[in-house]
Design brief:
312 residues, mainly alpha, Tetracycline Repressor, domain 2, 2 domains, flat
């Protein structure tokens, strides 16, 4: 569908608050909020509770701004994919120009307010995150290279670094490792989704790895990234954000995640699609819990540390 037809359709439907909120990708925003909050609470030092609330709020707004800019630019792709046809622009609820205006306005607002509420290191990281997701990933990498999600995954990995910087005014090895954990998690998580989404990305002309190099190569990549992810995740247990709670969580989760990656890797392409998709969906579902529980364990270590129960 052309931009003109999308806008014409949008003009015939009245958008609700929920449609505009959907532009901000609230499910993605929830992950941004959680990992940023963990980075903030795990950092040495502290903020006044009101400052901490404002920091998380403005980071969330910045994440939502990125989502709106992504939906503005990708409305043509979203129209072609079953997974995204219900989004506000292709569904005819919101015009592209509205999404662009909202994205730009919220980007500027979130960066300036985060700088005023905390410091301009955190604000600078937030600004770079929005730029990276909206421009580097959405406008360039996504339609150009099958490594799009590998490089572009950095955008979703910055929130814990921003939360950390909001408290400390800088970057440390612990915040870099939290970034790396999310960065390395993104490819296997997203490639598993691609494997059971069948032809969605091919129909939209997006060069995802399984479209350009095939499903077998994608399975190989999932296994390699999962092995590297496990090394990083378990290694984090012996840093300033780790401890026995985190180590136990990491050992269990990475054993399960590796088993799932091996199951996908060993899949015979000649077996029924139903059996294969079942494995891929199970791995994808586990990947959602994987990141949440790792950061949950980091949070537990941070909250229990003052009582002598967290950390080493």
């Amino acid at each position: 569908m052309s931009d003109a037809s999308i806008n014409t359709q949008a003009s015939t439907n009245e958008a609700s608050f929920g449609d505009y909120f959907a532009l901000l990708k609230p499910r993605v925003m929830s992950l941004v909020v959680f990992t940023a909050a963990v980075g903030l609470l795990a950092a040495p030092g502290s903020l006044h509770p009101f400052e901490a609330f404002c920091a998380i709020l403005f980071i969330a707004v910045g994440g939502g701004a990125s989502g709106a800019l992504n939906m503005w630019f990708d409305s043509d792709i979203d129209q072609k994919m079953k997974r995204t046809q219900g989004r506000p622009i292709p569904a005819g609820k919101v015009q592209r120009e509205e999404a662009l205006a909202i994205g730009v306005a919220l980007s500027g607002f979130s960066v300036v307010m985060l700088g005023l509420a905390t410091n301009f290191v955190a604000a600078g990281l937030l600004a770079f995150t929005i730029f990276f997701y909206a421009v580097i990933y959405t406008m360039w990498l996504k339609r150009w290279t099958p490594q799009n999600i590998v490089i572009g995954g950095a955008a979703g990995a910055f929130p814990p670094m921003i939360g950390w910087a909001a408290v400390t005014g800088g970057v440390a090895i612990e915040s870099v490792l939290m970034f790396t954990l999310t960065f390395m998690w993104t490819p296997p998580h997203f490639w598993a989704l691609c494997l059971f989404m069948k032809s969605d990305y091919k129909d939209a002309g997006v060069p995802m790895l399984h479209v350009t190099h095939g499903r077998r190569v994608t399975r190989n990549h999932i296994l390699v990234y999962t092995i590297l992810l496990a090394i990083i995740a378990i290694g984090m247990a012996f840093t300033g954000v780790g401890g026995p709670i985190y180590l136990t969580t990491a050992l269990v989760l990475n054993a399960l995640f590796l088993a799932g990656a091996v199951s996908i890797w060993r899949r015979d392409e000649d077996v029924s699609e139903a059996d294969g998709y079942k494995r891929e969906k199970a791995f994808f579902a586990l990947s959602l819990l994987y990141l949440f529980l790792h950061f949950g364990a980091i949070l537990a270590e941070a909250l229990l540390a003052p009582y002598g129960l967290g950390g080493w």
